[in-house]
Fold Phage Mu protein F like protein.
Amino acid sequence: MSATLTDARREQAIRLAENGARSLIERQLQAKLAQMILGFQFNYIAELERQNLLNEPDAFERLPAILVDPTFEARIAGELYRASSVAFEAGAVVALHQMGFEATAPRVSKLRGKRARVEVLKAFKLKFRLTNGAINLKILERAQAIAHQAVKATVEATQRTLKELALAGGITAGAAIAKLKRQKFPTSFAGRIAETEAHAAYEDGQHETYKKSGVLYHSWITVGDNRVRPWHVTNEAEGLVRVGDPFPSGQVHPGDGPLSVNCRCSVIPEVPSALDLIPWDGG
Ligand SMILES: [Zn+2]
């Protein structure tokens, strides 16, 4: 099977990468995580109040926040895993489309929101489902590591707020909750995690699909504005790079490694017309 990309299809692939399912996954994940973080903070304050510890200096030692809700970390990891594996599938279907195949991923198609539904369903027919055990495990382990960091940061942010209130002269649960509600922490922190994780999983899906389908070369694409990292401008200027080899930044693909927070870059494959590709179905 061979495929040739016209400029129009390249354009469409880049547009899908930037505006389609991925941003919807990001927004849904952000909303979900922010809601969970706020809920965790509220529960902690309610429990401190119930145990008359709200104004105790050693309240955090006597009642660690995580003891109030021991399932918090696992629930955050679960949300991250679910969103990341759907984002991986979204990256995979875009990669398949870029290679000239028509593909759909049922979980991506089911995303609520008109934009993702229209763009994804219009373009893809082949069914992709991430059933590969090693890749699922890799996504799960990353989700667990990020969840662990997220819980630590949430506990610290909550303790900071309560300490500030205590220093200002006594806390009531109502005042603590009002202050937490005014804070941007849950939304901005959840936003950073959601953007970084959905992007990383999406780009990983794209990359694995090239590798497993037989694409040999690809090039780095930035969105072209002045917020793009200098290293990523250099990556784009490099042109074609062999799939699996590092770009000048040292990254193998966008979303790879620590240079990826808030990154919006993507890649497009080089698909020579005579090349035989076997589209990967996620297994
Ligand atoms: Zn970038």
Observations:
- Residues 222, 228-229, 232, 254, 263-265 surround zinc ion (CB under 6 Å).
